[in-house]
Structure formats: structure tokens, C-alpha cells
Design goal:
210 residues; alpha+beta; four-stranded antiparallel sheet; 5 helices; 10 strands
């Protein structure tokens, strides 16, 4: 049975909050205007979301139950507000830049979803507290040496001389997340592609008309 389980197909999964299309559009416009350093690669529009739980690789047979648990958190309004200054992660030699998404509702929803997934051993929580954020740019890796290539080690992130500029005031208004979605991440040479496997639409709070 163990050998059979090891051979079962696996999928790279995560659960995220989807942003309103209007907010994503404005973020894309901001990326085009303010991410200028050649070491930075703006995140694709479809990847502008707030990850709640990254499940890593799970057997495909688990997807149906994980989808059920995702929907079981129930419909509830989730209002959020983006902070102005991009955050370097980690600060010294960043691999990415993200925008804080301040949201008590998102923190509460993530805690409930985490508990449900942990109870059925689909998720191992991170030791650090949940951080609601939207990744907006990734740092390209340096060219690898011959020894790195032989060892299949990823190159160190390039040095960023010009970090992304602060968000404009129009992106600081509160908004409503539109759904919770279970995604499969497909790793391609051109970057990750995301396929929605299950969705739960969220009602608005009136923070922003969609």
C-alpha cells in the first residue's frame, strides 16, 4: 500500500483570497509604472491574491475533501486595506516584495480554515503568525555557477538597487475580497500557472462597489 500511495499523482495546492478585479487592475498599472529595477519581475495579474494556506504537494485524491473544507468556512464579508509601502522579504537580500493587506476578517477566516485543514492532516501551519499580504514582485536569481548547476542549487537573488515605489492613494481605500479559492499551482519554465479547483464567493461589506 505504501508503494501505491507514493505513486499516486500529486498536486501543488494552496487556498487564497481573490481580490476584486478593479483592485487587481490598479495594482497592474502600479506595477508597470513603479517596478523598474531589472532584478525585479512583476507578479502576473492572475497571481495577485492573498494566500491563506499553502498546502504544498498533496495526493490528487485529497482534492475533493480539501475543496469541501474550503467551502465549509462559509460565506462571510472579508474587508481589507492595502498598506502603502512595499515590504522586502527578507529585508537584507529580498527574494520578493509584498504589500501588507490589513484585515482582521482575513486573519479570522485563515485561522478557521487552518484548523479545519490541520484536523484532517492536510496542512502544517507555519511557526510564524499568519501575514495577510499580496506578493507584487519577485527577485530574479543570479546566474548560477557550474557547481551550482551540477548541484541543482538555485542562484542567489539578484541585488535590488531600486525597490518598488509606494502605492498611490487610490489603492489605499478598503475593498472586499470576492472569493476564497482552492488553487493548483502548475510550475512552468515561464512561471507558475494557477488553476482554480473550488471557489466560495464572499458577500460584500459595502467597502467598495464591485
Amino acid at each position: 500500500m505504501a508503494k501505491e500511495r507514493l505513486k499516486s499523482p500529486r498536486a501543488r495546492l494552496f487556498v487564497a483570497l481573490d481580490l476584486p478585479e478593479s483592485v487587481r487592475k490598479r495594482l497592474v498599472e502600479w506595477q508597470a509604472a513603479s517596478i523598474r529595477d531589472p532584478a525585479l519581475r512583476p507578479v502576473a495579474p492572475e497571481a495577485l491574491h492573498a494566500t491563506l494556506c499553502f498546502l504544498a504537494y498533496r495526493p490528487e485524491k485529497d482534492i475533493e475533501r480539501i475543496a469541501e473544507l474550503t467551502r465549509e468556512v462559509g460565506e462571510r464579508p472579508v474587508s481589507a486595506r492595502l498598506k502603502q509601502d512595499p515590504v522586502a522579504v527578507p529585508p537584507g537580500r529580498p527574494r520578493l516584495f509584498a504589500i501588507d493587506a490589513e484585515s482582521e476578517a482575513a486573519v479570522a477566516l485563515q485561522a478557521e480554515l487552518s484548523d479545519r485543514l490541520v484536523a484532517e492532516r492536510f496542512y502544517k501551519p507555519e511557526k510564524r503568525p499568519f501575514w495577510p499580504h499580496v506578493t507584487v514582485a519577485r527577485v530574479k536569481p543570479e546566474k548560477r555557477s557550474a557547481s551550482d548547476r551540477r548541484g541543482r542549487r538555485r542562484g542567489h537573488p539578484m541585488r535590488v538597487e531600486t525597490p518598488p515605489e509606494p502605492l498611490p492613494d487610490e489603492l489605499l481605500a478598503p475593498f472586499d475580497a470576492v472569493r476564497v479559492a482552492l488553487y493548483q499551482s502548475l510550475l512552468r519554465p515561464t512561471g507558475a500557472e494557477y488553476v482554480s479547483l473550488a471557489e466560495l464567493d464572499l458577500p460584500p461589506t459595502g467597502a467598495e462597489k464591485r
